[in-house]
Structure formats: C-alpha cells, structure tokens
UniProtKB/TrEMBL annotation:
This is D-2-hydroxyacid dehydrogenase. It comes from the Bacteria. It comes from Amylibacter marinus. It holds the Pfam family FAD-oxidase_C. Residues 32-213 form the FAD-binding PCMH-type domain. Belongs to the FAD-binding oxidoreductase/transferase type 4 family.
C-alpha cells in the first residue's frame, strides 16, 4: 500500500494525496471496513480528470467519496484490488445561482445543508431534505439518487437535477452542466450517472432546480389504528389541500419506543404510545390558508373516527420537535443495533398487506422486534428488524440472510423494489442479481463494460459478478 501511496504522491503531490484516516474507511452501519488506502482530495475537475486517467492507465480502482453517509456500503471498498479513495470534499464551491431561472450550480462536494442555505439566501427552496443533510454532499446525493422527506411533492435527487459535469472512467470530462429544462439531444448521460453510485464516473458539479419558498406551513402528527387508514387519509388530504402535502411519514409503535428508550430527552408527543402515526406536512404560498385548511381537514378526519389523536404544531418550534422525533428514529435504531435493515418500496395500495403479513412470516424464522417507518407517501418503507429485549444482533447472525430473503421475496411478489432510495452499493449487489430485471441487468453490464472496460470505477458496487 505504501508503494501505491508513493506512486500517487509522486504524480499529484503531498497536498492532494495522503493515507486515508479511519473516518474514510468505515460506514454508518459498520458492515464494511476498508483496508488503509491512499486518499486523493482534488480541487478542480481537471485534477479529477488527471487522477481518473492515471488510475485507468494503472488499472487502479477509484472509490468516489462524498459525505460517507451512504447506507449500502457503496463508499467503502473492502476487497483486495489496489484502490484509491477519491473525496470530493474540496470541490465545494457555489459556481452560480440564477434566481430568475430557479437554478443553482454547485460543486459535488457541497454539503446538502449548505446547498439548501444558498437557495434560502436567494429566497428560493432547494427541497432535497434528509436526516444526514449536515454531512452528505451533493455528489453523493446524486450518485445515490437520494430521496428523503419531500419526494412526495418535489421528487427525488434525479428530479431536481438539470445537468451534471462528470469525469468518465477514461478521464474524459462530460461538460453537461446545462441549465436547460428541455434538452432532447440523444442519450441522457446525466440520468445514467445519477443513481450509478460511482460505478460509471465521478460527478464533479451539478445544476439543480430551485422552487419558490413556501410561506405557510402546517405540520401535524396523527395517531392512527393502522397504515390502511393512513393511506385513505393521504388521498383525502391531498384532494382537500390541492396537492400541497410535502411530507407524509409513517411511524410505528416501535419508533416511539426506541426513541424513548435511547433518547429520553426527546419529548414524546402522545400520552399513550399509538400503534401507528403519520407526520404530515403541507406547505404553500402566502394567502393559501394552509393552516386553516389543514385544521379543517383534520377536524373532519377526527369526526369520522379515522384519527385517534392529533398534535397540530402551533409554532415552528413545535413543528421542529415533531420532525426531531421522526428524524431521530434512525439514530435510535443504530443505538439498539439492527439484525438487518431494508429500504423497500411497494405500490402504496399494497403496503397494508405487506405490513400485516410480514410479522408472522418473520416469526417462523426467529423471535424479533420490527421497526417499520418511512416515507409512506412515496410507498417507501424502512423495515428494520431487531433482537428481542436482552438479546444481541450477533445472536441472529445465522438467520440474517433468511430474514432479508423473506422480506425481499414478499416485496418482489407485491411488485415492489428492494432498494427504494438508498441504492444498491455493495450490500444489495447480489440481491439485485436475484430480484432485478434480466434485460435491465444485461444492459447495465453492457454499459459498464463499454464505459469502464478496466472496471476501475467503484469495483464490486452495484453490478456484482455472476457466480
Ligand atoms: C441518518 C441518515 C439518514 C439518511 N436518510 C436518508 C433518506 O431519508 N433518504 C435517502 O435517500 N438516503 C438517506 N440516507 C443515506 C445517505 O445519506 C444518502 O445516500 C446520501 O445521498 C449519500 O451522500 P454522501 O455524500 O454521504 O455519499 P457517500 O456515502 O460518500 O457515497 C454514497 C455513494 O455515492 C458514491 N459517490 C459519492 N460521491 C460521488 C460523486 N461525486 N460522484 C460519483 N459517485 C459518488 C460513492 O462511491 C457511494 O457509492 C441517510 C443516511 C443517514 C446516515
């Protein structure tokens, strides 16, 4: 490894090249750990191009690295092939903001929360929002096609991107940083690179869509009997509020209990923990009366008996407290230690069947606790399973694969996807071989071989070798 480090220092200098510290070698869930590797931190697209070209000549792997918050191990190569880690952290400039066009152009290393701040400073909204927004970076968000809590209204990262600048595996630069909303000039490299998780190239900058800032926001937490009721309510609220629902997040009993157990300082909103709850947010412009209309719609729901209890935020601080509860669930999960985590999407009308039938299927494999929560409005559930009280996740190491197979089999049977928003990375690359569409997998392999014949870009991620 030192020989590789010396080779890169000789080529690019000690300011750009160092040995990666531990922070770059692991990931949030602790499944993947990389051996020590050279870390390269370029400042310009030309430097990225030179590094990738050099790696291609030497057949050295390149693992692009954003904020390191990815949940499927895409940013951590744990194999034996010589590889470098390419961090975009120094490419963190706002290249331009065009409020009249509702567009901003940022480099890939910009932290998501900073990108939101740039838009805000120009009285615009950049709506991508997720709990890791203080650490994840725009390049990583696009590479994973991140979702988050406002997909229902604004779409995922792909929907928010107008163009990308990227370095392809041979070192060539794709100058696709257009600010155009219409551009039908053949194959769409931008859409190929978005969601490719670093397996086809390095995204170095992006032009992103901005939106008017909502002036009126209403946030409420509703206690409900079951997810089927939640889905009915979503349909009615959307009609009554003219489609301005921006978030509709499901929280199960375990979500409340896990947060109470691990973060007792976080205020529990209900005196009695509900079986299910949804966090609803509606947002619109001045004069839209969103708060009054939400109140009216929820009063009707309470009267018809579909809502058992409701907390309607009366201030920004109260709304933030409700969001804090929702966004703390992943942290509570990590503290308890999941046996296996799943990020699935299912056609919305079939979600109740999934949630009702899975516990009995899993109980046949082992005695576990389930924390099911997520972006119900997008049909996206985080379905994580935990050991019972007093046990440890390591006690279930032998059953882990069986739990995941049972969950993914059911998702596939219902016409769903085994990765809704986190991507494939290394964690799901083999599962994709089993659940992915054959023709799509063949096309993915052909594209990978055509663009990256030496397989330098993020080896073993997304496209797994067949047995
Ligand atoms: C607490 C928490 C909450 C989360 N919530 C959500 C959520 O609600 N929705 C959601 O979708 N995800 C969520 N995630 C997952 C994660 O935050 C996202 O996947 C995020 O988009 C990753 O960005 P990153 O900069 O951290 O990327 P990294 O983790 O550094 O990398 C992720 C992948 O992208 C590749 N990559 C990174 N930068 C580039 C680049 N410039 N060019 C090409 N490839 C690149 C890497 O090689 C890797 O394969 C959450 C994670 C955490 C820890």
């Amino acid at each position: 490894m030192t020989a590789l480090l010396d080779q890169f220092i000789a080529a690019f200098g000690a300011d750009m090249v160092s040995m990666a510290t531990e922070a770059y070698l692991g990931e949030p869930r602790g499944h993947y750990i990389s051996a020590p590797r050279p870390l390269l931190r370029p400042r310009t697209v030309d430097e990225v191009s030179a590094i990738v070209r050099f790696c291609n000549e030497l057949s050295v792997g390149v693992v692009p690295y954003g904020g390191g918050t990815g949940l499927v191990g895409g940013q951590v190569y744990d194999g034996d092939r010589p590889c470098i880690i390419l961090s975009l952290e120094r490419m963190n400039a706002l290249r331009g903001i065009y409020p009249d066009e509702s567009v901003m152009v940022v480099e890939a290393g910009v932290i998501l929360a900073d990108a939101q701040g740039y838009a805000d400073a120009h009285d615009r909204l950049f709506p991508l929002s997720l709990a890791a927004e203080g650490s994840c970076r725009i390049g990583g968000n696009l590479a994973t096609n991140a979702g988050g809590v406002q997909v229902l209204r604004y779409g995922n990262a792909r929907d928010l991107c107008l163009g990308v600048e990227a370095v392809l595996p041979d070192g060539s630069i794709h100058h696709g940083l257009r600010r155009l909303r219409k551009d039908n000039t053949g194959y769409d490299l931008r859409n190929l690179l978005i969601g490719s998780e670093g397996s086809l190239g390095v995204i170095t900058a992006a032009s992103l869509k901005l939106f008017p800032k909502p002036r009126e926001v209403s946030t409420a937490l509703l206690a409900l009997e079951n997810p089927a009721v939640a889905i009915d309510i979503l349909g009615r609220l959307n009609t009554q509020l003219d489609g301005v629902i921006s978030a509709f997040e499901l929280i199960g009993r375990a979500g409340f209990e896990f947060v109470a157990e691990q973060m007792p300082h976080i205020r529990q909103p209900f005196a009695q923990v509900p079986e299910w709850a949804v966090l609803v947010q509606a947002a619109s412009g001045t004069g839209s009366n969103v708060e009054a209309r939400m109140m009216q719609a929820l009063t009707t729901e309470i009267e018809r008996g579909s809502v058992q209890d409701a907390v309607i935020a009366q201030s920004i601080a109260q709304a933030d407290a409700l969001w804090e509860l929702r966004e703390t669930i992943p942290e509570a999960n990590r503290a308890i230690g999941a046996i296996a985590s799943h990020d699935v999407s299912i056609p919305i009308s079939r979600i109740p069947e999934f949630i009702e039938t899975m516990p009995a299927v899993l109980a046949r494999i082992g005695d576990v606790r389930i924390n099911c929560f997520g972006h119900l409005g997008d049909g996206n559930l985080h379905y994580n399973i935990f050991p019972p009280w007093g046990a440890h996740k390591s006690d279930f190491a032998d059953q882990r694969a069986a739990f995941s197979a049972a969950i993914h089999d059911k998702v596939a049977a219902l016409g769903g996807s085994i990765s809704a928003e986190h991507g494939v990375g290394r964690l799901k690359a083999r599962a994709l071989l089993r659940y992915g569409d054959g023709a799509k997998l063949a096309a993915m392999r052909a594209i990978k071989a055509a663009l990256d014949p030496q397989n330098i870009m993020n080896p073993d991620a997304v496209v797994a070798k067949e047995d």
